[in-house]
């Protein structure tokens, strides 16, 4: 018999009642969660309260990836029509047009998914981080080198804030294979890298429209402009077409560099380049050129001969390696690593890596797995890290320098045909000081970072 049963005939004192109740409650609270809620049950307290800012395009996909396991509590977009389907899908989420009003009014937000046009990434992310909010920011992280450094600095100074850039290929299993094979010496020392994309798939090389158009009733044009200079509305700018304009996007290199340059940058342990040189079709400094080539030099670990990386966009392709045989260079994009003992090729997002020639791949004895696999989506990886379960795989401490490298290639368009020497420590071009103005931008009145 238990002690309580022995005393069943005695009056139940308050002290004994409290003790017995506490013991019973303790017995309930230590039950496994799956017993309480069934298989796959997630307690409300274990869910992240997420706000989406910029939800009509990639933001919609990001939120859909998070919705099964997290709470979508707020939605913010400057274009009601473009964002309409997402508003309808999450009817319980509060709606906003201005992220500043959202952050001020809604205190229950744990983290933000920011998928606005590129020129707004920096100001929104920095505002959220200063309030202690976790942030997931679509690529490219920012549109200027200074902004990328600022976000990386904020991330370092606020270690409890979990950050992630939306270069989803960084979470793929294949991306880890690339790292393991290169570390294994599968192609020897990598001396040269070629990176290409089929972008732009939006208009570029355009002149600024001469005639203004009436702003749609569903669009807040002033909020769309944000920190960028004021100009009259025209349908040439939005939606989606903003990527081709210097004031709003980062062109093909900014869009796809985060997916393609990411893998050699990671696998080879690179830092921002020591030099960069660009050439392109005509560039009017308003809209990015139709096609461009950018050549980077990166310092190697032995500090001897630099590693050379060449970027191609707008339909320009790298020289076809003999090892491709009858196979054409894939026009959709990819990365080719040239080492002292062979070559390695993979598609966009790090997909389908293979050694060249085919015989080398067939005979290659793969090394043991050394890099843990993520096993969940890039968005879920961020959300779990926010809840203290593991770490985000593409935090701003990594994404900032990666983005800086891409953006330097864009700045190089302003002085083509010149090898520009980059002083990363002092954030300046040593032989072209006139270009340093493009490393930062002026913010329109009322907007700050």
Q: Which key features would you list for this structure?
A:
449 residues, disordered N terminus, 6-stranded parallel β-sheet, alpha/beta, 15 helices
Describe the structure.
It is a single chain. With 449 residues, this protein is of the alpha/beta class. It is built from 15 helices and 15 strands. Helix 7 runs parallel beside helix 8 and helix 8 (145-157) packs antiparallel against helix 15 (396-411). It is globular.
In short:
With 449 residues, the chain is an alpha/beta fold. It is built from 15 helices and 15 strands. Residues 211-298 form the Gfo/Idh/MocA-like oxidoreductase bacterial type C-terminal domain.
* Count of strand segments: 15
The N- and C-terminal alpha carbons lie at a distance of 69 Å
Q: What portion of the residues fall into strands of 2 or more residues? A: 15-25%
- 3D shape: globular
Overall SS class = alpha/beta
Spell out the blueprint of helices and strands.
Layout: H1 3-6, H2 14-29, H3 33-37, E1 49-53, H4 58-66, E2 71-76, H5 80-89, E3 94-96, H6 99-105, E4 111-114, H7 121-130, E5 134-137, H8 145-157, E6 163-165, H9 173-183, E7 190-197, H10 221-225, H11 251-260, H12 262-267, E8 275-280, E9 292-298, E10 307-313, E11 333-339, E12 342-347, E13 354-356, H13 358-363, H14 378-386, H15 396-411, E14 420-423, E15 428-429
Parallel strand pairs: 1-2, 1-4, 2-3, 4-5, 5-6, 7-10
Antiparallel strand pairs: 7-11, 8-9, 8-14, 9-10, 11-12, 12-13, 14-15
């Amino acid at each position: 018999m238990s002690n309580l049963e022995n005393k069943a005939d005695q009056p139940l004192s308050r002290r004994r009642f409290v003790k017995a109740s506490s013991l019973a409650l303790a017995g309930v609270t230590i039950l496994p969660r799956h017993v309480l809620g069934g298989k796959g049950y997630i307690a409300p307290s274990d869910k992240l309260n997420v706000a989406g800012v910029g939800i009509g395009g990639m933001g919609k996909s990001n939120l859909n990836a998070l919705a099964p396991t997290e709470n979508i509590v707020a939605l913010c977009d400057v274009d009601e029509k473009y964002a309409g389907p997402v508003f309808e899908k999450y009817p319980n989420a509060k709606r906003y047009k201005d992220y500043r009003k959202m952050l001020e009014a809604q205190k229950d937000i744990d983290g933000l998914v920011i998928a606005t046009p590129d020129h707004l990434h920096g100001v929104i992310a920095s505002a959220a981080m200063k309030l202690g909010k976790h942030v997931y920011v679509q690529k490219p992280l920012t549109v200027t080198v200074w902004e990328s450094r600022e976000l990386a600095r904020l991330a370092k100074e606020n270690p409890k804030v979990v950050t992630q850039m939306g270069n989803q290929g960084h979470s793929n299993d294949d991306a880890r294979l690339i790292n393991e094979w290169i570390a294994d010496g599968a192609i020897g020392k990598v001396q040269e890298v070629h990176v290409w994309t089929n972008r732009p798939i939006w208009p570029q090389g355009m002149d600024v429209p001469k005639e203004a158009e009436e702003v749609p009733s569903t669009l807040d044009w002033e909020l769309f402009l944000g920190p960028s200079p004021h100009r009259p509305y025209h349908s040439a700018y939005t939606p989606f077409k903003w990527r081709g304009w210097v004031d709003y996007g980062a062109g093909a290199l900014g869009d796809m560099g985060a997916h393609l340059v990411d893998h050699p940058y990671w696998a080879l342990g690179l830092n921002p380049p020591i030099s960069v040189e660009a050439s392109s079709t005509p560039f009017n400094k308003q809209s990015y050129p139709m096609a461009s080539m950018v050549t980077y030099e990166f310092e190697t670990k032995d500090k001897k001969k630099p590693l050379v990386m060449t970027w191609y966009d707008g339909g320009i392709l790298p020289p076809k390696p003999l090892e491709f045989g009858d196979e054409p260079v894939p026009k959709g994009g990819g990365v080719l690593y040239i080492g002292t003992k062979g070559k390695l090729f993979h598609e966009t997002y790090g997909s389908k890596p293979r050694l060249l020639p085919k015989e080398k791949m067939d005979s290659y004895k793969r090394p043991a797995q050394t890099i843990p696999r993520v096993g969940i989506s890039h968005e879920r990886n961020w959300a779990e890290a926010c809840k203290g379960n593991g770490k985000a795989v593409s935090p701003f401490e990594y994404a900032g320098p990666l983005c800086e490298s891409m953006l330097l290639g864009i700045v190089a368009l302003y002085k083509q045909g010149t090898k520009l020497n980059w002083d990363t420590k002092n954030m300046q071009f040593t032989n072209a000081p006139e270009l340093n103005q493009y490393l930062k931008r002026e913010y329109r009145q009322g907007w700050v970072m």
